[in-house]
Every structure is written in C-alpha cells, then in structure tokens.
Amino acid sequence: MPSKSRETHLGNRPWKPKVRSVEDALKVFDELLHRRPLPSVIPFNQILTQLVKLKQFETVLSLNRQMGLLGITSDAYTLTISINCYCRLNRMEYALSVLAHFFKLGLQPNVTTFNTLLNGFVLRNGVADAARLFSKMVEEGHCQPDVFTFNTLIKGFCAIGNNTLAIQLLGKMDERGCQPNIVTYNTIIDSLGKHTQVDEASKLFSEMVGRGIAPNVVTYTSLIQAACNMGHWNEATRLLFEMASQGIFPDVFTFSILVDALCKEGKVAQAKTVIQIMIQRGIEPNTITYNSLMDGHCLRGEMDKAKQVFDLIVSKGFSVDVHSCSILINGYCKGKKIDQAYKIFKEMPRKGIVPNTITYNSLIDGFCKAGRLQEAEKLFSEMQDCGQLPDIQTYNIILDGLCNNQQLSKAIELLREMEGNKLKPDIVAYSIIIEALFKAGKIDSATDVFSGLSSKGVQPDVWTYNIMIKGLCNGGILVEAEKLFRDMEQKGCYPDGCTYNTIIRGFLNNNETSRAVLLIEEMGVRSFSGDASTMKLIIDLLSMDTVDPVLLAWLKDSVRS
Q: I need a labelling partner for 150 at 20 to 30 A (CA). Which of 75, 370, 419, 492 fits?
C-alpha cells in the first residue's frame, strides 16, 4: 500500500490517478476509502473531476454522499463539483442548495462557483435567473466577476435573441475593469449575424480589431454566414479574401456555410466548385456539407443526383443522420415519389436512425398530397406510438389533407380536439378550415370561424383575409368583401398583390366594373400588378361583343399614360 506521502504527492509532483474509464475511477476511489488513515479530500476531488469529464454526474453525486458519510469534509472545490453536476442534470434547486451549504460551512464561494451556477441557468434557458444571480454576486460583493462570468451571461442573452442586453453587458465589462476577449466578441457577432443585424455585427468587428483583439476563423465564419443569409455574395467573397490576407484559412464550417447558402440560392454548380476547393486544400467535407449539397439537388428536383450524394456520404464512411434522411424524404415527397420516400423511411431504423417530427411531417404531407390519406393517418398514429410528439405543423398537414380529400367533418373534429389540447391551433389551422368551409358552400360557418378568431387570441394574417375575400366574392357578397378589405389595413394587416387581384376579380365576375377599375388604379399606385388570372379576365371582357364603357375608358387612359 502506498505511503501517506503518496496520497497527494509523488515527490514534488501532484498525485494524478490514472483514470481512463468509469471502472478505473471507481477502483481508485474504493482504494482511497480503504486507506488508513483516510486521505484528505484532495485525491477524492481529483477522482470526481475525472468522472465529471466522463459525464458521470449521478455517479459523482453518489460518491460525494459516501464521502460525507465517512466523515471526509467537502471543501469549496468539492462543492463546486456538486453544483456543476446538479446543473448538468437540470436540478438547479439542488445546485442552489449546495451554494447555501457553502455559507453554512463557513466557506466563501469563488468566481468559478458562481460561473458554474450561471452556466447551469443559461444551459436550461434560465437567463433571467442567471441575470439575477449575477446582480446578487456583484451587489453583495461575494467576488469579482471575470471574463468567463460576463461571457456566460452574454451567451445567455444571445441565445434568447436579446442582442441589446448582450451589447450593454459588453459595455459594463470596461466599467468593471474586465477586458473582453475574442469569445465575447465572437458570441455577439454571431448572434447579430443570425438576426440579420449585419451592420451592427460589422461595427462590433471594427471595435474588436480597434482594441487589438485579432479575429479568428470563428469570427470570419460568423460574418460570412451573415452575408450569405442576406444574399450579399460580394461581401462574403471580400471577407474570404480578407481572411486569406490575414493568414486565417477557412475551415470545414466556413466552407459548409458557403455550400449551404449557394445551394439555397439554387447555385448547385458553384457549391460543387466550393467542395472541390475544400478537397484540394485538404479539408474533408463532412455530413453537414453533403447534406447541404443534397438539399440543393432536392430543391431543384434533381432526385437522382440527391440520392447519389446520399450514397456518397455512406461510401465515404460518414454516418448519415436523421437530417440526411429527412432531406431525401422531403425531396422525394415534393417530387411526388412517395414510395421512394417511404423506402428511405423504412431503412432508417436499420441504420440506427430514429425519425424525428420533421421526418414524419414530410412523409405525412407527401401521403396527404398524393391522396393516400389512410396511410397518412396510420403514420400519424405510429408517430405518437413511437414517442414522437406531433407539432402544430403536423396537425396543420393532417387538417389540410382531410380538407383536400373531402373529409371536412373529420377536419373540424380534429380542430376541436386541438382546441382542447395544450397545442392550440394557430392561424394556419383556422385558415385551412375557413377555406374548406367556403369551398363546401358553407359561407356562414366560414364567417363564424373568422369572427371567433379574436376571442381565441388568434390574429388573422394576409392569407386569412385573402381566403375570406375570395370566399365572399365567390358567394356574391361583395359589400362584406369590400368592408373586410378596408378593415384589414386598420387592423395592422396590409393587403398584398394577391388581395388586390382577388377582390378585383370578384368585382369583375359580378359585373361591378366601375369598382373594379378603381381598385385596379389603387393597385397600381401601391406598385402591385395584375396577375395572369386577372389579366385573362380583363382580356376576355374586352373581347366581348359589347365592352363595358368604364373598362374601355380605363384601357384608353392606361394606353395614353
């Protein structure tokens, strides 16, 4: 048995147990427990730290309880380990109780302890709680926040999209004599870019460089992604050249962002060129890169090429993931190749891949649009049996499928079921039902559903108004249609080109040419134009033996102007 001197030190070097697995850790822990006298808490802390790295949080807490029963007193480091484990297990109330235990033992929590707690709250979307703890930490003077404290809270604010508070906190760092680092700036720049605040991201980038903080590949990747999301290709190219001039080379994430952006724009050939450049530079494209390329082919309806990319991922030894399968399934469904989509779906469990809600939604939608409603409903039930909860989009797909397959009563029954659940129907669900009621000739019922929206806390959007106006016009109820058309703007919902075309056709079809002409002129003032259906209707009316004089006068005025 090693002597006492070896419990914490070997010569002048700290004792570091060799732990490569949970079994190793438990073996060393057991050996420590059998030593007499019992070692200090330090070697136990080292074992617990190793187990934390192995993500064995429950085991750490269990061993810590054993230590307490044997009279091994925890120090500040032990308690901080416990706080970290409770945070990782989403048991924040226990983590806070450990903080209280600090003071009972007469120990002073340090900045690492508070940072651990703050990170726990942020990881569980408890940013408000994290902010309160930060204020308490500062106001009560427990310890001085460091750069990690600020970075953790900034990360939290950015995660909930509150970039304003993140920037304000960045300003407070200087006030407290705490210098921001590259992580601070990268976190905010990335968040600003994702929220299309590109100018603000550029300003912060300039501020960072002005302070002597050198940007890295993460900084440039965030800025390039922001530029690509906005379609600013020249700016993205400029940033790439600037990176190279600074000796910073794009990594797989930078290239993957470029590939994804190009594919979403339909520029698959250019995306393939980027992949070739990656390979030439010795940067191996990953599953994310190939998923983007596959999605690009799907968006163009090139399903054979998309399947080739899917097979390429497998042949290269990469793991196809649920996202890879969902992309291919969605592509096949959009191309009305439902059986091929279903084949991929059935192969997923054999590859150890669990379909998610997006996978199910794509396939259910495909079955509904193909008129194979029984298979869609079977999949809807199977989804729930497998523990995948349907989201609002799933229900809307089923509603739309039922309505388009003349099963309106079942759709209304499903809507009522949704209203009774926690997952309340949104405006899309109600719009689907309103449109189906109009198509079934149930004008009063459609109007009743629309009138009841406000009491349900649901606001109609422009699509809903367009459905209502079209339904009322088709029913010859022009006064109500025009009233709704005028009311929508007052309620903060502005008509679009479709709204104008819908009501103009309604007036023309009901021989209300004078009112239609006034709306055509108003549409022009608002920079909207007649669509193909409206223009065909006008041409048909002008081709009749007796042309409406109002329409003829409008046409002459239009030609002169």
A: 75
